[in-house]
Amino acid sequence: MSDERFTSLPSPARTLRQLSCCAVLGLAASAQAADSPKPGSVFQDCKSACPQMVVLPAGSFLMGTPEDELGREGDEGPQHTVTFAKPFAISRYHVTAGELDAYIRESGVKIADGDTRPGRFCAASKPTYKQGPRQPAVCVSWFDVQDYAKWLSKKTGHNYRMVSEAQREYAARAGSAGPFPFPFDNNDPSKYSIAQHANTYGPTDGYSYTAPVGSYPANAFGVHDMHGNVYEWVADCWNDGYQGAPADGSAWTTGDCSVRVMRGNDWGEAPVFSRSGNRNNRAPDVRGDFLGFRVVREL
């Protein structure tokens, strides 16, 4: 007479198959975890033409600025929580002139001239001031940056795109909550000088125009030059506040899309415009010697 207590027990062969399956799944999960770059790690998907990328952790941060922050503008609020469900990688530095030159050579693209102001003319992605290969790429429009990201994706087989405004502020804050993730010079906020950490208005920081990327210390996320040197295009349409802004870190693709957001400040503006939460905008076809870009890559 059979005993039903034993009929549901797996056969030895079935047990071995189950164990084998679990082992394979476990090894696959371990391999995937091992392949996932750790926050802070730096990689480059190709030599010379590809920017160095640094991995940022998943997590949440408070985007925007408190009402009592010195220099705050009305478009910097209300503060709101943004959560990144997955890590992502961002350019360790501004995309450099050398990297943009490699793109131009390999793709055959022509960058149009721009900015006809005296002394500020942009000729085919080149500014009037002397520029080396390690200085930030400038004189590119929002559309040029979109094209560069598409080219880089095709070249590497990975998904590169423009940085969202939330990603840029997350990278700039690097876990900090104040106007900067570093102290004021000589720990004296009354003078509002950040020359030891950023290239902004005046030669005190050592540069009258752009500085070579990485000339100043990285922040806690391992990212350089987030608070000066050149403004950076980001993907978002302009909105004059954060009511209704995405909470997942994605680009805000509604609003006034006739202008696009730029972040970070440049070599010719006062330090107060370098604050982590400061915002600005330009028409997407603008090309200026003060305006460059970064990219992000999905992991």
From TrEMBL:
<dbReference type="GO" id="GO:0120147">
    <property type="term" value="F:formylglycine-generating oxidase activity"/>
</dbReference>
<keyword id="KW-0732">Signal</keyword>
<feature type="signal peptide">
    <location>
        <begin position="1"/>
        <end position="33"/>
    </location>
</feature>
<dbReference type="Pfam" id="PF03781">
    <property type="entry name" value="FGE-sulfatase"/>
</dbReference>
<dbReference type="InterPro" id="IPR016187">
    <property type="entry name" value="CTDL_fold"/>
</dbReference>
<protein>
    <submittedName>
        <fullName>Formylglycine-generating enzyme family protein</fullName>
    </submittedName>
</protein>
<feature type="domain" description="Sulfatase-modifying factor enzyme-like">
    <location>
        <begin position="50"/>
        <end position="297"/>
    </location>
</feature>
<dbReference type="InterPro" id="IPR005532">
    <property type="entry name" value="SUMF_dom"/>
</dbReference>
<dbReference type="InterPro" id="IPR051043">
    <property type="entry name" value="Sulfatase_Mod_Factor_Kinase"/>
</dbReference>
<dbReference type="InterPro" id="IPR042095">
    <property type="entry name" value="SUMF_sf"/>
</dbReference>
